[in-house]
Design the sequence.
């Protein structure tokens, strides 16, 4: 049983890549390649639409979409090495473009924080997460990332304090082992 279906699929496919059976390994490569091709086609389409418009709000929307597509390449583990760095930098660039037209979009600020965190720009990520909260994003969407930042800074007291605020939240079954650990620490 797996609670995060897409994560389980990625894990199974990654395991199959190392399988001794050629058929299974080829199937895994084919599935991952298909996902990457779909995302790259969507990126190509969005880049064409972005180049074809000068309307500020439309550009912001397309830039947000592009940032999300590049992030999906990262999140699904479809890019590594230099391609990973490129995907993160493109996602960051397009998020910054989107924020120029949509300064008050809390989801964009969350996305911006995640990208900055990926780049180990922790202070800037913290500011982006705080801005997302100020704009009304629920704590349940932001606190886990703030806790990750605190952990990266080795500020374990803050990790414990932040995770303690999550103990009563519903729908966090995947985080329950983490919450139990930090609740006992």
Sequence:
């Amino acid at each position: 049983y797996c609670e995060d279906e897409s994560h389980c699929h990625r894990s199974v496919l990654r395991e199959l890549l190392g399988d001794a059976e050629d058929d299974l390994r080829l199937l895994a490569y084919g599935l991952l390649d298909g996902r990457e091709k779909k995302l790259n086609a969507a990126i190509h389409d969005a880049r064409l639409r972005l180049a074809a418009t000068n309307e500020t709000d439309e550009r912001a929307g397309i830039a947000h979409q592009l940032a999300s597509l590049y992030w999906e390449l990262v999140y699904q583990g479809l890019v590594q090495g230099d391609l990973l760095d490129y995907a993160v930098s493109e996602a960051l660039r397009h998020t910054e473009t989107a924020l120029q037209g949509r300064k008050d979009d809390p989801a964009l600020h969350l996305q911006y924080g995640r990208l900055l965190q990926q780049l180990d720009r922790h202070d800037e990520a913290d500011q982006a997460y705080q801005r997302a909260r100020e704009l009304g994003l629920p704590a349940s969407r932001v606190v886990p990332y703030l806790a990750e930042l605190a952990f990266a800074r080795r500020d374990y007291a803050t990790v414990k304090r932040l995770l303690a605020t999550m103990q009563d939240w519903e729908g966090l079954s995947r985080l329950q082992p983490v919450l139990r650990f930090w609740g006992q620490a």
The two ends are 28 Å apart (CA to CA).
